[in-house]
Amino acid sequence: MSANDPASSAYRTGGLRYPPRHHREHAPVWIDAVLAALGHAPAFPAGGPVRLCDLGCGTGLGSLALAAADPRIRLTGIDLDPAHIEIAGAAAAAAGIAAKFRCADVAQLDPPPGPFDVILCHGLLSWVDDATRQAVARFVGGALAPGGVVLLHYMSQPGGAAFAAFHQVFAAHADARDPVAAGLAVLRGLRDAQAGFFRLHPHASATLDSLLAEDPGYVAHEYLNPCFTPLAAGAVMALMRGAGLTYAGSATPCENIDALSLPGSCLPMVAAERDPARRETLKDIARNQALRIDLYRRPGTGLADAAHLARMRSIPWAAMTDAPGPGRLTFDTRIGPVEGAAEIFGPLLTALAAGAQTFGALERVPPFAGRPALLNQALQMLLWAGIAHPLRQDGTAADAAPFNRWAEAQRLPFRAAPRLGSALAPGRHVRL
Ligand SMILES: C[S@@+](CC[C@H](N)C(=O)[O-])C[C@H]1O[C@@H](n2cnc3c(N)ncnc32)[C@H](O)[C@@H]1O
User: Fold this and answer.
1) Of 189, 335, 187, the residue nearest 259 (C-alpha)
2) Where are the domains of the chain?
3) Residues 206-236 pLDDT 10s
4) Which of 16, 76, 79, 227 best tests ligand 1's pocket when mutated (most atoms within 8 Å of CB)?
């Protein structure tokens, strides 16, 4: 264990800080729209507050951007690493955001704080030992408010298992002066030499390209950590069942639409399987799924059809200013390129180009008249593709300027976007 590593039996990264990251799936507005699409009741009242816990928050900057964009959020960030928590606290003070940051090992938080309406756990579950995974389950089971939602990100089977090979290379160079650079050089050399591993696992080759452009802190947290367990969806479901939670769906909208995210030849097998764990296992194998971002809730949050429809109809949607025109639209999915039918997406993009509209108003656009399920799927695909986004409905004024000034000075790769209740890359905007 390096002198700079936080005191934990389960997490080591050579003392490098995790870089600032915004994950679009973390925004309560995004989670709410996905839950609505899945036919679930809201996890928090539309007017707020949204008690949000970011467990394993890193430097907390992604969640601070959300709090700057969405004044309903009452943010608590928890992380093991005192240096991360120090950065988070200083950033909150500089941006004038009243967030709580706590330096703690999740295994020591018994009883857990809370209650929270939204618990985010991103980048933790696959990088800790089994005892810490059990502690995460105890935490979410104890800290989640009735009706709340947990977002769990983890490396999954079978596609994530390929990355054990990356871990082996980094472990073999752990004593190098710069283990990140040494490990990357070996992986690149092997790929250049057309090693069989890279020919068999093209997704690992694509990941290597992104790692070569990454901040070393990211690579360190991902690959220097001796704990690495790609998890089977069924094993995570069993872990969460012990905490009283059940799988609600994916926070990655495309993955909730079988017809657009699974090879057509696998659809009959998946459609015939009713058991959720077996079904998700089939889907993961069909897509060679490498990571999952799952939503979990307590049972009983499903809506009857009329309430489901009413909930979807109230949500306003807007396109990004860089949205494509009504021509040909190709979605780059995990199973390869999927063509978006022009007769469906063309009129939808044309309607959104005129300005933000509720789902209810978009239902009047001809291809969607009397076909809310089709509109639901089309909007979820546009959300996933970064083309459209739901808007915050509470109407509360958000002053994101102090955070955004600070983010610009720090050259963060994202800015708070108050109408979306989320964050966007600098220069990206929504068309209202
Ligand atoms: C890969 S980073 C992810 C940061 C952030 N969630 C994100 O996705 O951008 C994982 C974080 O979990 C923290 N962590 C690891 N083990 C932990 C534990 N037992 N309790 C609390 N935090 C932990 C690490 O310090 C690190 O900041």
Assistant:
1) 335
2) 159-224
3) 999 999 999 999 999 999 988 999 999 999 9
4) 79
